[in-house]
Amino acid sequence: MGTETVQKASDLERGMKMLEYLERGPWPSYVTELKRTKYPIEAYAEGLARKYTPWLSGSFRVRYVFSGILARRSRDGKFVEIHFRTYAPAGRFYSTSYLRKVVEVAKRYGIGLMEFGGNTGALVLNMIAEKADEAVDAIRTIMGSDVGGSGDTFREFYACPGPALCEFALYDTLHAMDYIRSHPAFYRYLNTQMFPYKIKFKFSGCPMDCATANSRADFALIGTWVGAPEVDQGLFRKMVEEGKINPKEIVDSCPSKAISWNEEKKELNIDGSKCLKAMNCIKKAFPAIRPGRNRKIALLVGAHIQGHFGPKLARAVALLDSVEEIVPFATELINKYMELAPRRHRIGDMIIRRGFKVISEVADKTLPNKTRGTPSSHLRISIGTNLTDDEREMYENWAKQVTSEYFGGGSGSR
């Protein structure tokens, strides 16, 4: 037996022991689930033992499909994996009937392995290479979805659950995502790679921006309102009397100092001209404090984490009354992007190179009567939401307790 063969056997043995360890604990183990599929678990075990991936990049072609297909092969050439990215339902709401269709396709044409809501947000199916052409037809006819979301095209669209689950939603993010993705102006690009680089649409229902549209989307649609939040003074006073909220904390939580508390009248006042839509007061005192009734959709463009000129936040364009109003603007801007941007430059990179004037000219043409943003304005949109110190401490203590109970020692134990 050669040295290389002995080493390979040793790596496999060590790797399988590592996988046994990963099946311990109170939580479901992905290793146990992988063993139930046709996934090459031994190749994965060898990779763990050697501390580098057992996979190398590969390529694969399916007729008339130019996006959403990724391939890789094992280092020894024994295994090939074909991944299909498919478009997921808005808000990631999977009905049981839809899941049965997904499982049927995965079993019939794949290795039985599915990934829901990974890094890309897409539903990823691992397919058998010999059945790839048939699998595309099955995804379209059985699942009612399509393959796409990789390469220089539209990446997976993403919407927060919006009005389906959240009391803070200021517009229907689920309808908005379905409307944009299925619109002929955008749908025709889903299976092609005609753009200089990828384009992302994200839909957040309120300024807390749970979809991270303000920091990760080329086109961000974020629910907002004009003016001050709405305050139910009677309910607010009642919550203060019951000790549920502290008016001083509400005042101090406002980053722009737009809130004041009148101790004599027991009245909370908010200056709408200063309100940054940070949502801090609303989170602390809901439903006594609610978003204002003059609701809009903020349109922002050009955000991404990685780019030629570093990470960028989105730049404000306009306040819209409905999602339908974005279509002429987006189609015109995409045409400009295809004309002006070099390869592997995002829309945000194009703005750096060409100036915000490119955006302004398109907005002047397609959104002539809308409240406009400026290059330095975010239309009062904050970025994300953070855990409080108490919440961080609670989760940290819980993690330490679970680790100690099942593996012994503190968080640093192995």
UniProtKB/TrEMBL annotation:
* Top-level taxonomic group: Archaea
Q: Name one Pfam family in it.
A: NIR_SIR
Lineage of producing organism: Archaea, Thermoproteota, Thermoprotei, Thermoproteales, Thermoproteaceae
PANTHER family from the xrefs?
Answer: BLR3264 PROTEIN, FERREDOXIN--NITRITE REDUCTASE, CHLOROPLASTIC
Give the GO molecular function terms: 4 iron, 4 sulfur cluster binding; heme binding; metal ion binding; oxidoreductase activity
Cite the entry's keywords alphabetically.
4Fe-4S, Heme, Iron, Iron-sulfur, Metal-binding, Oxidoreductase
- Indicate whether Transferase appears among the record's keywords: no
Residue ranges constituting the Nitrite/sulphite reductase 4Fe-4S domain according to the UniProt record: 150-369
Instruction: State what protein this is by name.
Output: Sulfite reductase, dissimilatory-type subunit alpha
Record's keyword annotation contains Iron-sulfur: yes
